[in-house]
Amino acid sequence: MSYHSTAAQLATLAEAEGGNHESLSPFLTGGGALFILLLLLWITTRFNRDR
Q1: Between the CA of residue 24 and those of 12, 19, 31, what are the distances in Å?
Q2: Is 51 buried (19+), middle (13-18) or exposed (0-12) by CB count in 10 A?
Q3: C-alpha 4, offset from chain centre
Q4: For 12-30, how does the pLDDT look when each residue is reduced to its tens digit (9 = 90+)?
Q5: Predicted TM-score of the model (pTM)
Q6: How far apart are CA 9 and CA 26, in angstroms?
């Protein structure tokens, strides 16, 4: 099985399952991801005691 056929099957499955769900806001999802990444960055720099 090639990567192309696998990707095509996953895209078809996502469309069949309702890939464009109305309750998922891209801004909310992106903002949440950004917040989590910034929180992880703060935790990493806060507890880095190597210096």
Answers
A1: 19, 10, 12
A2: exposed
A3: 21
A4: 766 655 556 667 788 888 9
A5: 0.50
A6: 23
Mapped onto helix, strand or coil, the DSSP state of residue 21 is coil
| Cα Dmax for the chain | 53
pLDDT at residue number 51:
59
Structure tokens at 23: 């309750």
Residue 5's pLDDT band, with cuts at 50, 70 and 90, is confident
For residue 11, the 8-state DSSP code is: H
Backbone angles phi, psi at 13, to 5 degrees: -65, -40
Rounded distance, CA 10 to CA 45, Å? 38
